[in-house]
Amino acid sequence: MTSVFDTVQFNERLFFPRPDGSSTPANATDLMLPVAEGVALHARWHHPLAQPAATFIVFHGNGEIVADYDRVALQYQGALACNVVIVDFRGYGRSQGSSTYRNCITDAPLAVRAIAAKLQATSAGRLIALGRSLGGACVAEIARTTPPLVDAIVMESAGAEPLALIARRGLRVPPALSPAETAAFDARPKLAAWQLPALVLHGAQDEVISPDEARANFAALTTKHKQLTLVPGGGHNDLFGDAAYWEALRAFVATLST
Fold it and tell me: Comparing C-alpha atoms, which of 38, 20, 39 is closest to residue 30?
């Protein structure tokens, strides 16, 4: 039986790709990361710092592309003393192929391995995988991959409940998921496998993905090194402009060096 997550109807309602004609900013390098035969993802590595405290690998939210983070990258540098790599999904920006929810998830560990190989000859500091909104599904997949691909994870404004995702797409919600669907698409069992530092970061007033889903992701984590931050007054798409958001990330990065 075909999973709803593999249907054309679901994926057409989930993904909103757009092209990227931006030029590469100063102190940045564009990368192409192979994830399948004839398919590579575009990533932009902002690396102005020779000795960063860490390097974030960011899987962005839906409707966003690499170029949307060109200015945000300056805040990673200034507020966090970190470099950052932004990764596009298939079909987004300059990435090849077409996105489905399944390949969006399974591409993530492949992309991280390719990025780690590119950064191997540099001083990247700790590697932190951050998934914003839809990108949280990518980071959950990274969390269950062994051996660990990164030193820490951040689930930002990310969902936990696959049935709620179906509902947000306006489709009929099945009474339950099959074991195979749960294994592939439910973030919570994947997060339970993660034993390194983790931060769950969410807007306290998020009306797109409820803060209750952040609490569910936090509860699923079994690591002793976990933090939950609900940004007061924060919504789904405005956290970048909130000082409390950057302070939460700064404090989290600081714990990795202790």
Answer: 20
